[in-house]
Amino acid sequence: MSEQVAIDAVALEVIRNALVEVAEEMNVNLIRTAYSPNIKERRDCSCALFDSRGRMIAQAESIPVHLGAMPFSVKAALELVPGMKPGDTVVLNDPFAGGAHLPDLTFVTPVFLGGRIVAYAANRAHHADVGGKTPASLAGDTTEIFQEGLRIPPVKLWKGGELDTDLVRLITANVRTPEERMGDLRAQKAANETGRRRFLEVVDRYGWDTIWAAIDRIMDYSERRMRAEVSLLPDGVYAYQDYLDGDGISAGRTRIRAVVTIEGTGISIDFSGSSPQVEGPVNAVYAVTASATYYTLRALTDPDIPPNEGCYRPINIVAPRGTVVNAVLPAAVVGGNLETSQRIVDVLMGALAGAVPERVTGACQGSMNSVTLGGVDPRSGRAYTLYETVGGGMGGRSTMDGVDGVQCHMTNTLNTPVEALEIAYPLMVERYELVPDSCGAGKWRGGLGVRRDVRVLDHRAKLSLLADRRELRPWGVFDGRPGKEGSQYLIVDGDERAVPAKGSMVLQPGSVISIRTPGGGGYGDPAERPRDLVIRDCREGRISAEYAMKHHGVEPG
Predict the structure, then answer these.
(1) Is the whole-model pTM more than 0.90?
(2) Which is deepest, 250, 405, 495, 530, by most CB within 10 Å?
(3) Mind listing the pLDDT tens digit for each residue in 179-215?
(4) 3-class secondary structure, 112
(5) d(C-alpha 145, C-alpha 400), whole Å
(6) Cβ count within 10 A of residue 98
(7) Other CB atoms within 10 Å distance of the CB of residue 330
(8) How far is CA 480 from CA 166, 350, 483, 540, in A?
């Protein structure tokens, strides 16, 4: 059919952008209608469109770790829930059946035209609690998936347009904040309904035969552009390895190694040298590893290539089963989506620094610095769960400094605004500031890390931390210096005590948890940094006079 329809380049681009805007509107609707601050304020969600064969057509530019992994969820839904009917919506979060980690719930809704499925609307949102051993379901000390929360294989939550109340009772009986969960689930359903309606409007405007032909050609176009970009990279074999500080349970560091082979228009990434899956929760399932790989290669080639199934055809990934980059049951995986995905990006950046030195950065902060708090809100007597990640330093770039205090690479969420956090939770943000001298020195320095102190008010709260780059600092490139490592402290009556980066504990009323995130690594020799930039950084409080003298030989005066 598609070969018989003529579409000129202008019409093809108009249709492509129309499909992208469908996904973007889905995302806006999901954020607008969500209940939890994690989705409404932090925007921890992603939306995409797929064709009738489960191939990704278009996506909203939101959370990289969601978007590269979502095709695996759609594929699992199509395989395990065949014969979807109008009004059906499938939900899943099982990492071993297309998911990433349990807090990320994916919705898949078929789009019907003339009695047949022509597309699927899908979205993924991070829920602030799905059960498990700690509030917010991100315990840093789990040892198997069964401790991490309610595991949902692909099942129909809506059947023929009717909500399955039996399944709802099962889900809400296993979470700490059932009303908030139902609000977010309904927001996800509304987002997919938006996608379904808007897709059919595009079909109505251009005709189904034209849309079907355009989908194939858009994917082929992305493939051609990606292959063209890969062909510009120097052929060769490039290898690098880096480590997570540890898994939070067993001794020793967790290695991730990649061998990248570029040949012609194809690129292969082999993770065979990575550690076997570990006891703690930093194992990544294959979908997460693929997502991190896709993100990095888009970033280092041309980020403007339309992200769809065709974009990833030139990329071959080898990730042996049973390793930390392709874990199998019953591995604990909640941190694989958060921390291991970040280290995979670091490894690929390190490997390809020799191929595209002008495009890589110094290592970014390399952690999502996940913080969860939960308990009973003394103001209402109801349970609450807070989940947030804290930004840090971006690595220095070939022509400019890294950015201070931002989310990097696989996460693209916002912070939780102080005002929103203090309204929603019995917590107070006492400090929120950049960390001076945390940047890696270089001709172009890395970005600064962040300090965020949160006090628990009038109740006992359960805290869980899941973070990395507390021992191994974010490295610099081309003689750039590493950024400062992160840290975390429990502050009680003014006394600070260092606490582990992966683990859980109970906080007493009045306790403060202080998170200090890593800075980014520098790019280039610090001796080559222009003097006026060093003086500017001192004047603005980013670095101290001692730092300026030590790394740049500059006395600010």
Answers:
(1) yes
(2) 405
(3) 999 999 999 999 999 999 999 999 999 999 999 999 9
(4) strand
(5) 42
(6) 27
(7) 12
(8) 57, 13, 9, 22
358-404 pLDDT, tens digit each = 999 999 999 999 999 999 999 999 999 999 999 999 999 999 999 99
Q: In angstroms, rounded to a whole number, what is the distance separating the alpha carbons of residues 294 and 396? A: 22
The two structure tokens encoding residue 180: 């908030």
Which own/partner pairs from 188-191 qualify as long-range (CB within 8 Å, at least 24 positions apart)?
A: 188/30, 188/45, 188/105, 188/107, 188/123, 188/125, 189/89, 189/107, 189/109, 189/157, 189/158, 190/29, 190/30, 190/33, 191/26, 191/27, 191/29, 191/30, 191/33, 191/47, 191/107, 191/121, 191/123
DSSP states along 242-257: EEES--SSSSS-EEEE
**Listed residue (405, 486, 396) closest to 442, CA to CA:** 396
Look at residues 30, 17, 104, 36 and name the one whose alpha carbon lies nearest to residue 64: 104
Q: Are strands 104-113 and 315-318 parallel, antiparallel or unpaired?
A: unpaired
- How far apart are the C-alpha atoms of 124 and 285, rounded to whole Å? 16
**DSSP-assigned beta bridge partners for residue 155:** 91
Determine the residue type at 284: A
Q: What count of other Cβ atoms lies within 10 Å of the Cβ of residue 52?
A: 16
- Please enumerate in sequence order all residues whose Cβ is within 8 A of that of 366, keeping only pairs 6 or more positions apart, or say none: 342, 343, 346, 408, 468, 469, 474, 518
